[in-house]
Amino acid sequence: MKRRLISGLFLSALAFASPAFAQEAADAVSPEGGSEGQVQGLTAEVIAALEAKMEGKPVTAQNWMVAAANPLAVEAGAKVLRAGGSAADAMVAVQVVLGLVEPQSSGLGGGAFLVWYDAATGKMTTLDGRETAPLEATHRLFHDENGEPLKFFDAVVGGLSVGTPGTPALLEEAHRRWGRSPWPSLFADGIALAEDGFLVSPRLAGLVEKDAERLSRFPVTAEYFLPDGKPLEQGQRLMNPDYAETLRTLASEGAAGFYGGEIAAGIVSTVRGAEGNPGVLSGIDLALYQVIEREPVCATYRAYEICGMGPPSSGALTVGQILGMLDGYDLAAMGPEDVQSWRLIGDASRLAFADRGRYMADHDFVPMPTNGLVDPSYLSERGGLLNESEALIDVAPGNPAFDHASNWADDESLELPSTSHISIVDQFGNVLSMTTTIENGFGSRLMTNGFLLNNELTDFSFKTHRDGVPIANRLEPGKRPRSSMSPTIVMQDGAPVLAIGSPGGSRIIGYVAKSIIAWADWDMDVQQALSLPHLVNRFGTYDVELGTAAEGYADQLTALGYEVNPRDLTSGLHAIEIGDVLIGGADPRREGIALGE
Ligand code: GLU
């Protein structure tokens, strides 16, 4: 049992948790009228879960739980779990509904990483369903005719940035390994919602409005998100018959119906025919796509093993580095209100990001010091650098032990937030943590067969070399772009105790590390840990969450030598603590919930 001594002052200052939000979210997914019995009618338990979140209270359950970014998706997963399905089954149902109701964040046209704890064998498995660079892509894909890197959004919008989607293959592989429910049954809610329509949520409507110009560039995308030239409105009923058709094909033919046949042909022609910015994805790329099982990466923190997705994700390595460097410091005694806690966390993060920028990439293509980066003696040496009282002046990569000799230059790549995180525990004790993405909000803005295509290739470094030294995360054909996604399962004494993850571009790493610290060291329950205002440092400014108590640290952080930047920090953390009971939390910054029985 964890101690729960909550530091009152900081928590009571959770300023952004507006109760109106719960009502707004509830309104947005309520049926328009009471008589039609639509799938999206909000049940009493969904309303209770939304309210609990906004009051900062966790949800508890005995048997199973699912936490994800949209109530309709959570309900689809809950139905599967209630009927005796596994966490892998529920994940399929959640993902196909997310791809419909939260299309800007993840879907069939994207990729994902999945971490699975198997109760029967006690084994942890990680599956890499990351998008892959087309075979026709070269180092020069994101260069202009003068060899200069393209501007970020010039590369993102259109066909150039689209990698081979991995999510459909990942769904099938997870179900093949761990599924209990019939595969076609997992598509029922997605198909019904796509055919009958769902009510556009406030978040989706807001994001469409902000992105209207880019969404208007391609006719199929414009027709869906800007019907009659106007952005979708909150509460409007939206149908997606093409998506329903795609789901029917997946349900009856499996992933083969996606990677070949008409859907594949639609993807290829959309990418290669994108006006102004055609890409190079081909039918061969789709036909060759493979989910890859990888070794989990684990790092020790206090009594816990923090396990997650290794390369091509930098997630588990960087989260593990931050926590490993902090292991020698008594954050519990210092608490969340001492600015020195934030100095330690911020500088550990800066040091970890320095290593990330130099060493982390798809290790099928470049030699990496994967073990060296989370080696306890290396981390304790790096952690020693934090034994100061002010911000570090120099932050440089360290020298972790390489499996092979190598020499890399620091990278340059940008990630802007979309993405979604799903945490699930089933009645059999299996635990799933999956982060899923199409990269930028609305991905490449190209749409085909009812779903958006990713822009994941812009997660590669646009530059290939620095001063003649190659950059590890440069683009190469068949390679997978480095990610920050950090689906995590925390283990204690060989048993899973927490599933957690978040969207947020490279800030994901800070959101996840900080939430684990809040939960493990500051005795917060999962909801308190997720609701805690953000203070995040990657490699530049110390970002503090606008409109929250975090802003109150700005002066103290400035005095320690940081440049402070108050801004929105829209994480989407979803977590489940596993103990005698299941305790779930959902990020108040998004529309999701945790639900269980
Ligand atoms: N494309 C990013 C990654 O794989 C995620 C983007 C996001 O979280 O918004 O790391």
Using only CA atoms, what is the Rg?
A: 22 Å
Ligands in the structure?
Answer: glutamic acid
| Beginning-to-end CA distance, first to last residue | 21 Å
Shape assignment:
globular
Category from helices, strands and their pairing:
alpha+beta
Helix content: 25-40%
Tell me the strand percentage band: 15-25%
The largest pleated sheet is described as:
7 strands, antiparallel
Could you walk me through the main structural features you see in this protein, from its secondary elements to its overall organization?
With 597 residues, this protein is of the alpha+beta class. The chain has a single domain, classed as Glutamine Phosphoribosylpyrophosphate, subunit 1, domain 1, CATH 3.60.20.40. The chain has 23 helices and 23 strands. Strand 16 and strand 17 form a beta hairpin. Helix 2 packs antiparallel against helix 3, helix 8 runs antiparallel to helix 12 and helix 16 packs across helix 20. The longest helix is centred in the middle third of the chain and has 21 residues. The protein is globular and about 60 Å long. The two termini are 21 Å apart. The site of glutamic acid has 14 residues, from loops.
Summary?
The protein contains 23 helices and 23 strands. It has 597 residues and is of the alpha+beta class.
Write the layout of secondary structure elements.
Layout: H1 8-12, H2 19-29, H3 44-54, E1 59-61, E2 65-68, H4 71-82, H5 87-101, E3 111-118, E4 123-129, H6 152-156, H7 167-178, H8 188-196, E5 198-199, H9 202-210, H10 212-215, H11 219-225, E6 237-238, H12 241-253, H13 256-259, H14 261-272, H15 283-288, E7 292-294, E8 297-301, E9 304-308, H16 315-326, H17 331-334, H18 339-359, H19 370-373, H20 376-384, E10 420-425, E11 431-437, E12 447-448, E13 451-452, E14 465-466, E15 469-470, E16 488-492, E17 495-501, H21 508-520, H22 526-531, E18 535-537, E19 542-545, H23 554-559, E20 564-567, E21 574-578, E22 582-586, E23 593-596
Parallel strand pairs: 19-20
Antiparallel strand pairs: 1-22, 2-10, 2-23, 3-4, 3-11, 4-7, 5-6, 8-9, 9-16, 10-11, 12-13, 14-15, 16-17, 17-21, 18-19, 21-22
Bound molecules: glutamic acid.
